[in-house]
Sequence to fold (168 residues):
Amino acid sequence: MLYGHAAEVAIRAALYLAGRPPGELSPVHEVAKTTRLPSAYLSKVIQRLAQAGLVRTFRGPGGGIELGKSPEAITLWSLVRATEGPSDVDRCALGIGNCSPDNPCPLHGRWAPLREDFEKLLEGTTLSALVRELEQASGKEQTIHQRQVRRTDTFSSREVTRERQDRP
Fold:
């Protein structure tokens, strides 16, 4: 993906929260378990989202997290910017620190329009639209929370061993 792991974690957690009833708090450990995200890392990402006003956190018994704005008001771009920061999102495609329109890298002319299109896609995509599309695609039998599976989920050592034994 064109954004980092922190942004992916933020998007998955925000999608989970967007699928919850308004005003219902979700403990971080519940979000982590349901979305299959590491709890400690999720907590760090939640801190960044809280600083940006995208989530609210409540401590103590009965505490948890909730969206800081309505799902209609939160775009994927706002989640990426809150977690990656402007310098990471706008970085050079080749990793050259001083790449700019005045001092372009070899890919700058081809990369800049793609990055702009990607930003427009993220800016135009809200959490509410994604939740709605995911629910329609899954036929409501499978909720957004059940679809939270990451392509790099780890397996237990027994499952990996069994999988190796099954290979010809």
